[in-house]
Amino acid sequence: MFLEIISPDAKIYSGEINSAVFPGVNGSFGILNNHAPIISTLKNGKIKVVESSGNKELFFDINGGVVEVLSNKIIVLAE
Questions:
Q1: pLDDT (tens digit, 0 to 9) for every residue of the chain, 79 residues total?
Q2: Which residues contact 53 (CB under 8 A, 6 or more apart)?
Q3: Cα–Cα distances in Å, from 46 out to 11, 13, 20, 41?
Q4: What is the dotted CATH code of the domain comprising 2-78?
Q5: Who contacts 9 (Cβ-Cβ below 8 Å, separation ≥6)?
Q6: Dihedral over Cα of 19, 34, 13, 51: its sign
Q7: Rounded distance between C-alpha atoms, residue 8 and residue 70, angstroms
Q8: Is 40 within 8 Å of 28 (Cβ atoms)?
Q9: Counting CB atoms within 10 angstroms of each CB, which of 2, 55, 61, 67 has the fewest?
C-alpha cells in the first residue's frame, strides 16, 4: 500500500509500506493492506510506519491532522 505524509511546508514521506499506526483522537489505530475506507482526525503523537521491506520501522512526530485511507492509498495531512 502507498503512504504519503504531507505537512503545510513539505512532503515528509512518500513510499510503499506494509502497515502504519496512527494517533487517532479516540485512540491509536493501525492500517493494513486492503483496509476499509476511512477518514479520521489525528492528535499529537507519533505515526509508526513499517516499510514494505519489513525490516525498517519509521516514526514521524505530528501535532494533529487528518488521515484518509482509500484503495490501498493513505494520505496524511499533518501539522
A1: 999 999 999 999 999 999 999 999 999 999 999 999 999 999 999 999 999 987 899 999 999 999 999 999 999 999 9
A2: none
A3: 16, 14, 10, 14
A4: 2.60.15.10
A5: none
A6: positive
A7: 22
A8: no
A9: 55
